[in-house]
Amino acid sequence: MSTATPDKPSGAVTVLITRRVKAGHEAAFEQASADMTAAASAFPGYLGGQLVRPDAEGSGDDPMLYHMVFAFDTAEHLQGWQQSPTRSLGLAAIAPHIEGQTLRQVSGLGHWFAEPVGPKQAPPPRWKVAVVTWLGIFPTVYAMFLLLGPLLAPWPLLPRVMLVTALVVLIMTWLVAPQLTKLLKPWLYPAVPGNAAR
């Protein structure tokens, strides 16, 4: 679980949960998930969530695998939700409808530009972070519209935005941003003369 020290404020935290649903339990699982999402939305810092069904574009090949993506504005607010009796009740309602292990991944936007291993270096200036973030988000969003635009055209605006933004966050966090930071590492973290000789 992602945690933050009290003297260091955390950024937005995105959670991806993958569950395998029992055959014939799809409707009950989706209802229980919707109830849990509604409950989470009442908690401080909740930014939104989206249930990605197996038949959704980009959800995977397994016909019984569901993905849930949601976000809180800080790790502290996420922890408040995770430790709440409300969440425990929601998990209890979902449990009869799933099988196998539940997979959970947590990532914050701060992880996109984690400092490289090695001599202590200052984090990159905000304008460089903004440039690299735009370099990643622009083509990712463009690709999402090209790939999913026709499929999502009949959808209402809010579900379209929720799905596209959830996919962009996932792709940025686990694919695009790590590659960009690796590629642009010399620019983001220029060598400090004093460290070169160490």
TrEMBL record:
Signal sequence bounds: none
> One matching Pfam family, short form?
ABM
Q: Which keywords belong to this entry?
A: Membrane, Transmembrane, Transmembrane helix
Q: Which InterPro entries match?
A: ABM_dom, ABM_predict, Dimeric_a/b-barrel
Q: Which positions fall inside the ABM domain?
A: 13-85
Residues that span the membrane, as ranges: 129-151, 157-177
Q: What is the protein name stated in its UniProt record?
A: ABM domain-containing protein
Tell me what organism the protein belongs to: Malikia spinosa
